[in-house]
Amino acid sequence: MTTPLLEVRGIDKSFGPVQVLHDVAFSAHAGEVTALVGDNGAGKSTLVKCVGGIYPIDSGDILFDGKPVQVHGPRDAGTLGIEIVYQDLALCDNLDIVQNMFLGRERRRGLVLDEASMEEMAQETLSGLSVRTVKSIRQQVSSLSGGQRQTVAIAKAVLWNSKVVILDEPTAALGVAQTAQVLELVRRLADKGLAVVLISHNMNDVFAVSDRIAALYLGRMAARVKTADVTHAQVVELITSGRSGDLGIMP
Ligand SMILES: Nc1ncnc2c1ncn2[C@@H]1O[C@H](COP(=O)(O)OP(=O)(O)O)[C@@H](O)[C@H]1O
Ligand SMILES: [Mg+2]
């Protein structure tokens, strides 16, 4: 067993009186896609927002490369190399692809923006990910399809030497062809050595690209398994009832 690049243990998180995460353990390995699955409201987005420093955890530990770390904000997560592509993407429609990828982290040469080097880096990142669907990196994001937007958001996340990339439901709003493109990109990220976490409740997506599956049920981690060791039906059972045969939460 190799040390996971990202690991959390015993995470509890409440919003006011409502406890959303109960003693959650989760890990992601370099070079692998780990699918985080669970029904709506299971706590998937909350868990990754805790890892990303958006929400403070009430208790528990976050380990990076085996060492305990403190994540008090998105900046801490970014410094560690953890990038999250959120469900709502947070791209600016009125800006072009380069501007979006460097938003808030623009490169400057003296007093002016270094457009040439930002263009070059944006182009290199997209080419490095074998993205061929985007025609011009000076295209406004408002003119992109859903799949292209997702691609830009993912490229933005990997531009910063990230080591862990977490994608919150990247294919939820996409058609069949665009979904296939995004899943290929997800696989390529892992093949480049990143630890990729894919949140999804689409079993086809999960089985197409993941190496491992972690199933959350009502804020509790029901099971963490290798994808090759389970069937679609078992994972659906874990999602809907928190258990399947001898897997899952025992009463
Ligand atoms: N900021 C918040 N304040 C209060 N409750 C929240 C907040 N964010 C999420 N929740 C609640 O936490 C639970 C888990 O939500 P979420 O993590 O978004 O689930 P998932 O991503 O698995 O669909 C839900 O019951 C949701 O209503
Ligand atoms: Mg969610």
UniProtKB/TrEMBL annotation:
Keywords: ATP-binding, Nucleotide-binding. It comes from the Bacteria. Gene3D superfamilies: P-loop containing nucleotide triphosphate hydrolases. Residues 6-243 form the ABC transporter domain. Transmembrane segments: none annotated. It holds the Pfam family ABC_tran. GO terms for molecular function: ATP binding; ATP hydrolysis activity. This is ABC transporter ATP-binding protein. It comes from Nonomuraea glycinis.
